[in-house]
């Protein structure tokens, strides 16, 4: 698995299974070149969890030749930027709509709920690891405090979280 991350997170993502990491702060042309070099052009699946990589994915698919019997797939959590599926050069494109998550009556909630036992098992088996995190404050008013703390860089690669309320 190859992924993109900031240089300060390279070791973290390698520690959770990435075989190679590309600096997402590099120009897209450099990222494309490095990814193609690392994969030898054997790239069939791209997952955009940060909702920012659709242009990079389109550039990658444009430079790849079709492989035998392996359809290319691009999945993104970006459901607001206009994208033309033709830009992905025949790859099957799947848009994950995150907006409805948690809204009453949303069909996606039942789907997510069905994954919970699998996720728990993966965590228990040590095959799924959470990111390092640091909790900064409690209550909705702590959002600004947590944001300011994250902006200082003191959390490093850790995710900065707040507790909405004490249990």
- Report strand %: 15-25%
Mean pLDDT: 86
Kindly report the spatial arrangement of strands forming the biggest sheet: 3-4-5
CATH topology assignment of the largest domain:
Rossmann fold
Number of domains: 2
The ordered H/E elements are EHEHEHEEHEHE
Can you count the helices?
5
- First CA to last CA: what distance? 38 Å
Structural overview:
This protein has 167 residues and is an alpha/beta fold. It folds into two domains: 2-98, 3-Layer(aba) Sandwich (Rossmann fold), CATH 3.40.50.720; 131-167, no CATH class. The chain has helices spanning 10-15, 28-39, 54-63, 107-124, 142-152, and strands at residues 2-5, 20-23, 45-48, 73-76, 92-95, 133-138, 159-163. The chain has a three-stranded parallel sheet, with no helix packed on it. β1, α1 (10-15) and β2 (20-23) form a beta-alpha-beta unit. The mean pLDDT is 86.
Topology diagram in text:
Elements: E1 2-5, H1 10-15, E2 20-23, H2 28-39, E3 45-48, H3 54-63, E4 73-76, E5 92-95, H4 107-124, E6 133-138, H5 142-152, E7 159-163
Write out key terms for the chains shown:
about 20% strand, 2 domains, two-stranded parallel sheet, 5 helices, three-stranded parallel beta sheet, 7 strands, alpha/beta, Rossmann fold, about 170 residues, single chain
Structure in a nutshell:
The protein has 167 residues and is of the alpha/beta class. Helix content is 34%, strand content 19%. Strand 3, helix 3 (54-63) and strand 4 form a beta-alpha-beta unit.
